[in-house]
Amino acid sequence: MLAFIHMPKAAGTTLSNILRRNFGRRHFDTRFFSNRPVFMADDFRRVRWLYPSLVSIAGHGVTGTSDLAEVVPNIRYFTFLRDPLARLLSQYQFNWNCMPDSERSTWKPDEYFEQVILTKFNNVQSRMLAGDDGADAAIEFLQSNSVFVGMTESYNESLVRFRDWTGIEDFDIRYRSVNRTSDISNDLRDAMKWRIANDHKLADRVALANRDDIRLYDFACEMYAEQRRAYGHRLSGDVANFLDSQADNMALQDEQLSSQLYRNLVYKPLRKWIFKNAA
User: Fold this and answer.
1) For 142-167, how does the pLDDT look when each residue is reduced to its tens digit (9 = 90+)?
2) Does 131 map to a domain?
3) Can you tell me the distance from the alpha carbon of 78 to that of 23, in angstroms, rounded to the nearest whole number?
4) Which pick of 212, 216, 224, 278 has the fewest CB atoms within 10 Å?
5) Selected residue with higher pLDDT from 257 and 8
6) CB < 8 Å & 24+ apart, contacts of 174-180
7) What's the CA gap between 63 and 128, in Å, rounded?
8) Tally of domains within the chain
9) How far apart are CA 208 and CA 217, in angstroms?
10) 138 closest CA partner among 208, 61, 68, 219
């Protein structure tokens, strides 16, 4: 069982589409079914009633704090991490774009970043792996569970390595980018990036607020470099071949359609009944 820990604003939606296209109805995108924000073993038991052939799950609810190993002893976790500052700025950009006009009118962009983004969306990556236990616990989770870690900054190369890690023959990693942003919101993000680079006090606040994610990311970079070396000299050739295949990505056979149809026509109508007794 592949379990994708989807870090917010780390190109995870594109990877989720890859999983849907490869696995169809054998893939499930988790949702928050109860008053808890984590997809738990009990949730999995209920989902499996409608998805008996599951080989892949993904979503923000898949975390290192779940008890999924109780029902899936062979679970294989993987995730993609992103530079903490870049992820934070992307979160800022996303939240601002999605905010209703009535709410946006009550905020100045700088104030929203400092009062909301820095306090509620900091250390997201380490918390997805280890809750509030910090960077050491997040690193321990990666190591003890042999988690595959890709890097958003080396996305295509990470996908090639991920394909090799799955061991699945003919696994298709071609993709179409999703969640592209507007020029206006890019300007908002870039303005905040410039401010952080030129305001040492703000830069210190950002670093302090995200110290766990920074430690985690530094460790992941070292881990990535080791795994990259282990892949061997064929990596550059495999990446080049993949990039050539990307030229045909508009001709992708969209298996994810079957996944979406099954979800909309079968799962969604029955969801309330399946989870009516969930805690």
Assistant:
1) 999 999 999 999 999 999 999 999 99
2) yes
3) 16
4) 278
5) 8
6) 174/18, 174/242, 174/245, 174/246, 174/248, 174/249, 174/252, 175/14, 175/15, 175/17, 175/18, 175/246, 175/249, 176/14, 176/17, 176/249, 176/250, 176/252, 177/14, 178/13, 178/14, 178/17, 179/13, 179/14
7) 5
8) 1
9) 14
10) 219
Residue 232 makes CB contacts below 8 A (sequence gap 6+) with none
Encoding tokens for residue 105? Answer: 């009118």
Q: Is the pLDDT of residue 113 over 90?
A: yes
Full residue range of the structural domain in which residue 248 is found: 2-274
Q: Judge contact between 31 and 46, C-beta under 8 A.
A: no
Radius of gyration, alpha carbons of the chain: 20
Q: Rounded to an integer, what distance in angstroms lies between the CA atom of residue 112 and that of residue 98? A: 13
**What's the rounded Cα separation, in Å, for the pair 197 and 85?**
11
Alpha-carbon distance of 75 to 247, in angstroms, equals 33
> Which amino acid appears at position 278 of this protein?
A
3-state secondary structure of 247: helix
Q: What is the pLDDT of residues 118-147, one digit of tens each?
A: 999 999 999 999 999 999 999 999 999 999
- Helices 135-144 & 211-231 angle (0-180, nearest 10): 20
Task: Give the CATH number, domain containing residue 12.
Answer: 3.40.50
The rounded percent of the chain whose pLDDT value lies above 90 is 77
State residue 279's pLDDT score: 46
In a domain, residue 279? The reply is: no
The pTM score is 0.89
Q: Helices marked H in the chain — which ranges? A: 12-23, 41-48, 84-98, 101-104, 109-112, 118-120, 124-130, 135-144, 155-166, 183-198, 200-209, 211-231, 235-245, 256-262, 268-274
